[in-house]
Amino acid sequence: MNIFLVLKTLGKLILLITGCMTIPLVMAFYTQSNDRIPFLIATALSLLIGLSLKYLFVANDTSFSFREAFAISAFGWLTVGFVSAIPMFITDYFGYQSIFGAIAIDYPYSNSFLACFSNCFFESMSGYSGTGASVISRIEDMPHPLLFWRCLHNWLGGMGILVLFVAILPSLGSAGSKLFKSESSLSSSDSSIQFPKIASLAKNLWIVYVGMTITAFVALQIAGMSVFDAICHAFTVMGTGGFSTRNESIAAFKSVSIETILIIFMFLSSLNFLLLRSILTCKFKQIFSNTEFRVYLSLILGSIIAVTTVNFLSSSESIFMSEFRNAAFTIMSIASSTGFTTADYDQWPHFSKMVIIILMLIGGCASSTAGGLKVIRIIIIAKFIQREFKKMIRPHGVFPIIVQDTVIENKTVEMAAGYCLLFFGTLLGFSTLISLLENDIVASITAILTCLSNMGPGFESVGPTDNFANFSSASKTLMAFCMAFGRLEMMAFFVLLSPKIWKK
Question: Contact, 470 vs 440, CB < 8 A?
Answer without folding.
Answer: no
